[in-house]
Amino acid sequence: MTAETQNRYLMQRYLLMTLDPLHIGAGGYRLGRVDLSIVREPGTRLPKIPGSSLHGAARSYAAYLYETPEAAGQSEEKITNPEKNPVCYTFGYIKGKNPDGSEQNAYSGVVNLFDAHILLFPVHSVAGPVWVSTPQRLREAGFEKVNPESVPDGQIYLIWNHTGRLNLGWLMLDVAGQASVTPPDKSDWANKEEWKAIANRIVLVSDSLFSHIVNSNLEVRTSVSIDPHTGAAADGALFTYEALPRAAFLTAEVVLDEYQVENRSRPFPVEKTNTGQPLPQGPWQGPLDVVKAGLKMMEFLGIGGMGTRGFGRIHVVGNPLEKDPLKDEKDTQNDKKQEAAQ
Asked: Do the Cβ atoms of 299 and 281 come closer than 8 Å?
């Protein structure tokens, strides 16, 4: 029995790595020298992957794996018994009118997919490629033994020994000392080749400087529309667009919330597709397995725009880090009671 089948609420944290440049458009308005900008957080101005984009991709690809492509949308008029479809149960659905003409019913999904935030950003330097982050971001993602506690503005800490100064793109900064970072003990991230490749190339900076470094080192490309009649570049059709570069690491959280489990039957476990074929990635024990299967397909089918131009593929690194919020809260309360008793 998996942890998910025992819990009504469960959180998973994914570690993602871009395999190609990633463009999640912000609506096509011009920002400085870029015609097509990407989505950013309002406060920090850091690029992100909206949870809605992850939700749509995960649902669409899970429906593809289950061989019910019509389940990729919320309207399930073409699906017989959507309540028995694991994709519909996981992400929610809207039923059409009943045979007696009664109104349709809407059922919310049982998983919440949140925005993916940048964790480690690749930047070129005279010492070769490095991955930049901040102590706070690493701690929030569950990383352990993160030193130093904070980084002063204008200084950097490196995982490896280096004296003097080091450039991060166009910016030259003083090296203040050596840093340390350890992946979460409960995860398998430390054993993955993706982490091993960058483990000795990490640079820690201050939170205020991180946004400047990221936005100064985004990938910017120039393209032109082709005139179908002449086969040449169309006049005045030159445009630029920005993207997260490949080999950027992000973290995203998925929360299971089956608060109505007593009132709805669960269509799990699922071992075969709708046509009776074995599921490509193995059986689904619950909604979180549906999400995981959909997210893993991003490695092949991608997410976001410019897909025909070689953009959008994302790789899921290892298994997600699981956390039971209710159990952790009880453990915290018990620890406080024991401290008070002593």
From this structure: no
pTM of the model: 0.88
Which residues are CB-contacts of 296 (< 8 A; sequence separation ≥ 6)? 281, 316
pLDDT tens digits for 177-230? 999 999 999 999 999 999 999 999 999 999 999 999 999 999 988 888 787 888
Q: Which two tokens stand for residue 67?
A: 């061989």
The pLDDT tens digits of the residues spanning 260-304 come to: 766 678 899 999 999 999 999 999 999 999 999 999 999 999 999
Q: Which amino acid is at 103?
A: E
3 state SS of 124: coil
Nearest to 140 by CA among 18, 288, 252: 252
In the three-class reduction of DSSP (H, G, I as helix; E, B as strand; rest coil), residue 295 is classed as helix
Q: Express each pLDDT in 63-114 by its tens digit.
A: 999 999 988 876 666 777 788 899 999 998 887 665 566 666 778 889 999 9
Q: How far apart are the first and last CA of the chain?
A: 37
CB neighbour list of residue 338: distance below 8 Å, 6 or more residues apart: none
Give the contacts of 67 (CB within 8 A, at least 6 positions apart): 273, 274, 275, 277
Q: How many helices (H) and strands (E) in the chain?
A: 9, 18
**Which token pair is 155?**
């200084």
Q: Say what angle helices 287-296 and 51-65 make with each other, to 10 degrees.
A: 100
Give the whole-angstrom CA distance, residue 270 versus residue 215.
43
d(CA 189, CA 154): 30
Q: Tokens 């901040």 sit at which residue?
A: 134
Residues 6+ apart with CB under 8 A from 25: 36, 37, 38, 39, 304, 305
DSSP string, 185-248: TTSSGGGSHHHHHHTTSEEE--HHHHHHHHHHS-EEEEEEEEPTTTSSEEEEEEEEEEEBPTT-
DSSP string, 80-113: SSGGG-HHHHHHEEE----TT-PPP-EEE-SEEE
